[in-house]
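ugh ok fine here u go
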Amino acid sequence: MTGPLRRVLLRRPPADCSDWQRHGWRAAPDAKLLAAEHEALCALLEEAGAEVVVAEPMTLDSIYVFDPVLVADDGAVALRPGKETRRDEPAALEEDLDRAGVGVSARLEEPALAEGGDLIRLGPGTLLAGRGYRTNRRGIRALDRALGIETVAFDLPHLHGPSACLHLLSLLSPLADDLVVGYPPLMPVALVQLLAERGIETVPIQADEFETLGPNALALAPRVALLPKQNAGTRRKLEAAGVEVLVYRADELSKGDGGPTCLTLPLLRG
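structure:
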């Protein structure tokens, strides 16, 4: 998840955003500003050296294109989102992946639940999985069988409850083999210990930037991070740790509680 980003898929937002409450967004997005922010994000990724594949609009939530599938070494795994309004997205994304030349090697079936935001590849041989309201035990077991790599699961905190979006990537994001950015007060003890055992440094965000997605950062390359512009404190901390930081405007894009890892589906790194 931290190698140089070469190819990435994003989904263009819909023109009609009137159903924002149905999808649990915090506030109504301005459709024109939302589209402009998304276009600017695509341009930034292209300028950073990535080929950007843009999929056609679906629902508001579908702009958070990381959640419906997990792109693995031998193809993509179509997931089964815990959020019911997103259950149609994996099948639609399969078609987009097929057009992009990426095959699907496995699919999760009922009663398994899993969303990409709860899954972090920690190096080539380990998958971290957050067990909570969007990803269940059966989903994690199914992924363990499909991927055949070490899977380490952690219980996520209740925090704002089942209606809120709290993923594992809401708590930390990898930025290099030996570096993550995160919010330790909400990270499971076993996760903090695992990172320490593997010699992985955690850059802690300041508390007032947790709600503005401070721990959610996209690695464009080792120690090169993409952040929402509003998280200036997190940017300063990362730069002090030797990380190059690029920022994008996310006033509208983040109203559904999705950060840069949520808005992008890396197809090729390295």
